Amino acid sequence: PRCARLPSLGQLANLEELHISDMPNIREVATSFYGGRNPFRKLRELCINKMENLEVLSTNLELRCKEMKYFHVDPRKVELSPVILVGSSHLFTLELEPNMFGFSDASEFLQYVSTDLCCCNFAALPDWLGDLASLEHLEVYSAKLQRLPHSIKDVTSLKTLTLKKCNYKLRECCSRLGEDYDKIKPIKHVYAHELIELNIKHLEGLSSSEANIIELAQKEELQFLSLEWSGPVFNEVALEELQPHENLKRLCIKNYVGGDFPNWLRLLPNLVRLELFDVQSGHLHLDYLQSLEDLYISSFPVINRPNDLNLYDKSSICILSTQPVKNLRRVTLGRVGKLLWKTSTLPCIEQKDDKNVFQREQQGGRHSDSGRESSNQRTLFPGLQYLEIDCCLNVRFEPSIPWSARYIISGIKQFPFLFHWPSFYQVMGLSTSALSSKMEIKYIENISSDSDSLQQLDIEELTVDSCIDPVPLPKCILGWKSLRKLEILNCQNMETLPEWLGDMASLRELKVETYWMKTLPPCIERLTSLHTLTLSQCTKGFKQRCSESGEDWSKIELIENVQVELRP
């Protein structure tokens, strides 16, 4: 990304594909890029994309890419000369942006289009599209386009029309009852499977009548809906009028200030992804979201100042689950002050009682032993692969945390001392899972305090990253009989490893960034199953102690694979 000049590539005789992207410092592609006469002799595919400040693409040379089959440039500010395509007799696909070549009609353009054309970011397609007699495949990628030109009927050879991320109005026009249907009726294949988006902002000013006019429930093709508030005013009736069609796949709610989520949320059986950004309160039933794969919940933006921490007292979210959600794969809980995830195999609790359930749990405190679930219970989330708890102060799973293939638990990077471990009593489906789990623990101080809940887990791979304790390991992991791999990274305050680590008979791989550690802890010698030991970020003195002539060699001489690396 820091590159300010492209190297000379044109004389790479066998180069067939060239993609250039994400270089904001590049303002000009100069003639030196081509490297002399007859550059890019075998180039078949050229794509220049996401070059935000590109202003000049020099084509002073006679660029004859005779093998060119695919050409795409996203120039943003620059108009290109069509001389770049001279001689490209095999051109198969051309991706075109508005004014890319400055064509005002088709006379200059037709010689460069063979069978495929991709039009990106057009507000209107040109009428001369009908003159492309050989065009077979047309792909339109634009949220601005609302109608197709009448001339598209004249493209008699057109076999495939693909609409990607297009305006929902265009989709309506191309439906069987739409105004553009007669234009595309002769086309053999019409595809419109990509995400159809609608973003509604400033909902605090939306009236019920305005919400009703939108008629979201009638928009069958709508796939992604985003609802965003920017003020404290809340109109519950208007929100209920924004009920989308049951075909909706993805829903995003931002800055929601209501006390509960809309009733229609339970009427979205096809919802795959639910994102709740900066939502401070609400009660969410997962039972009704049987297609849900990805759940994201946050109560606040990124915490940068100590005063921002006061926001944590204002958040209170409850998740209720009584029925299996078999498709759920990923859950992220970020920057939440108070969150209760209540699971039960009892009949589903009605939403009107959600608040009372949450209040009773808060008042009643911890669950009694007699009320604990068995770890042999059926899991409600058999497909869960990822569970992240990031910068949360009070997360409780009552009574069980879902089993997941991967856990990530993070404190607040700027304020690691504020961390609190999530609370739970059992691990749902642990005994029935045939797969192993991994865990990452990051940005935590006093890592051993109040971590008893972790004893219920059985993790195979653990990574401790950027924790500031002198001994950055929670003792509760002694109960993990399956732990095979342990990594301790970026813990620059670490002084030693705990003596009890030597009791972990299952550990086979250990990686430690030692930083200022002076001697190798004696517990290493007792890890009789250890197969691989990697010590990195070491001082010279520490590395010397671990050499064959060093004082600590006897502790590691029986380990099969040992690697000791100095700090850079």
UniProtKB/TrEMBL annotation:
Q: Which InterPro entries match?
A: LRR_dom_sf, LRR_R13L1-DRL21
One Pfam family linked to the record: LRR_R13L1-DRL21
Boundaries of each R13L1/DRL21-like LRR repeat region domain copy?
197-299
Instruction: State the superkingdom.
Output: Eukaryota
According to UniProt, the name of this protein is R13L1/DRL21-like LRR repeat region domain-containing protein
